[in-house]
């Protein structure tokens, strides 16, 4: 092997090696009694959480404070997004009793703010919208003072499915744009950048008093200008809350991290978001869509007319 070949191999190996995770991304382990109690409630109710399925780095912090994001419609997703750790395949589960069990868990946990999300269920005609609506209604019935936030898939652009969710009147409607327009097709399976913006705009038109929210993950190859353009696009369709966090590669088969953004860069993006008129911007290396969701709600709910 020539010296040139050795240099080429060294460059290729360097490109394939994952970037070293910086100090600010270390997570403190807190397997407290609260953590174990919450896990038991989930298992007893045969419920899933995105905290576990998506390997969220904030699971110990959030569960320590007795907050969690429920994942309905099973734990097998019909899509295989290149950033997501949730299992993909052909779902077999559709549990019509799930909304009642979820509401019971909300009461047991004493939650004041619950986030409900799901796997994508493209195998269902309405994408699971009826179950989302039922969950909202059951939580309202069981715990009237609990705010309900839903983080929904795009329902493949099905307007009636979105209408069913909005008619149930969640307190916050969340749908993640995930990444910049140029990278959307590469990062997200089946989802479309324009369709996400359309869904967020439609949701606001259907229920103007329900704030909308979205999330951007960084580190998959986007540029700074593209991030700002995405923030602009979200504001144009009336989004009130945006969360910005660092992408972390869950397994070797997922997208490689191209860059780790510094806490200072995240702080700068928070200011960029606030300058654009977002009512609340959560921006940091470990921020995820549901991180500090209750604080976001208190900043925004009841103030949406000012934000728009």
Task: Give a written overview of the molecule.
There is one protein chain. The chain is of the alpha/beta class. It has a single domain, classed as TIM Barrel (Alpha-Beta Barrel). The chain is 41% helix and 12% strand. It is built from 13 helices and eight strands. The chain has helices at 3-16, 33-44, 50-53, 59-64, 98-109, 129-142, 159-167, 184-187, 193-206, 224-236, 263-275, 293-300, 304-307; strands at 48-49, 69-72, 113-118, 147-151, 172-174, 212-218, 241-246, 280-283. Strands 1-2-3-4-5-6-7-8 form an eight-stranded mixed β-sheet, sandwiched between helices. Helix 5 (98-109) links the parallel strand 2 (69-72) and strand 3. Helix 5 (98-109) packs parallel to helix 6, helix 6 (129-142) runs parallel beside helix 7 (159-167) and helix 7 crosses helix 9 (193-206). It starts with a helix and ends with a helix.
Keywords:
308 residues, globular, eight-stranded mixed sheet, TIM Barrel
Number of domains: 1
In which range does the helix fraction lie? 40-55%
Classify the fold: give the CATH topology. Answer: TIM Barrel
CATH architectural name: Alpha-Beta Barrel
Helix/strand/pairing category: alpha/beta
Distance between the termini: 64 Å
Strand content: 5-15%
Global shape: globular
Major sheet characteristics: 8 strands, mixed
